[in-house]
Amino acid sequence: MIKFLVAAGFLAMNFYAYHFFATEEVRPSRAPFLVFPAEIDGWKCPEFQTMDEKTEKNLGVTDYLLCNYENRERQAYGNVYIGYHASQVRKEGGGSGENSIHPPKHCLPGSGWDIIEADTRPLDLPGFPPNAKVNRFVIAKGEMRSLVYYWYQSRGQVIAEDWEKIVRMFWDRATRRRTDGSLVRFTVPILRGEVEEAEANFRSLASGVVPKLADYVPE
Questions:
Q1: Total of domains in the chain
Q2: Long-range contacts of 88-93 (CB under 8 A, 24+ apart)
């Protein structure tokens, strides 16, 4: 019964916001990821990667950055994925028009990765708002281990929880006519079981990437 009432409340909020506050969405201007820096503070992207058409369509993403950044001095690399959605509402006709951001905790198991550690923790990075919290996973596939940090970066906000992303999107849709947002994800391999080394590599890479996001993920 409680789940039904919560679901009904979300539907009512969405209906009210759409029909009485925000019938036309604002699409803020932004720079395309095509011009995102390939070299950042010792980290270099040899080649920006592209997804196949089916994957891109399933994600409902408007623009994205996908690359394995390398740092020769640290002898490290880390995968960066930033998916930007100009809108997170369903287009007319539904179906493939669904543009909501897919949580990695749902996608990773489908890709063969097991989530062996998962928590939400505060993270202080250049360009972050105060008291920001993000998601941290340790994932495994066979003998491989990787460290994953991800969050939703939307309209000047850094959000960890799925439910909070939905609530804030409804509110911003009603008050600002905006539902745009992004998923920011870093994946760093854990080599020889050295979790602390992977953490340091993540911070080094993220500290270079995050301050540059404002031009690509509008506030």
A1: 1
A2: 88/169, 88/179, 88/180, 88/181, 89/18, 89/25, 89/173, 89/179
Per-residue tokens: 161: 């929880």
Each residue's pLDDT tens digit, 28-66: 889 999 999 999 999 999 999 999 998 888 888 999 999
Q: Name, in order, each residue with C-beta under 8 angstroms of 43's C-beta and a sequence gap of 6 or more.
A: 69, 70, 71, 78, 204, 205, 208, 209
Q: How far apart are CA 120 and CA 123, in angstroms?
A: 9
3-state secondary structure the chain: CHHHHHHHHHHHHHHHHHHHCCCCCCCCCCCCHHHCCCEECCEECCCCCCCCHHHHHHHCCCEEEEEEEEECCCCEEEEEEEEEECCCCCCCCCHHHCCCCCCHHHHHHHCCCEEEEEEEEECCCCCCCCCCEEEEEEEEECCEEEEEEEEEEECCEEECCHHHHHHHHHHHHHHHCCCCEEEEEEEEECCCCCHHHHHHHHHHHHHHHHHHHHHCCCC
What is the per-residue pLDDT for 4?
45
Name residue 125's beta-bridge partners: none
Question: Domain range holding 150?
Answer: 2-215
Give the torsion sign (CA, 137, 55, 66, 213): negative
pLDDT in tens, 167-211: 888 888 888 888 888 999 999 999 999 999 999 999 999 999 999
Two tokens, residue 76: 């490290």
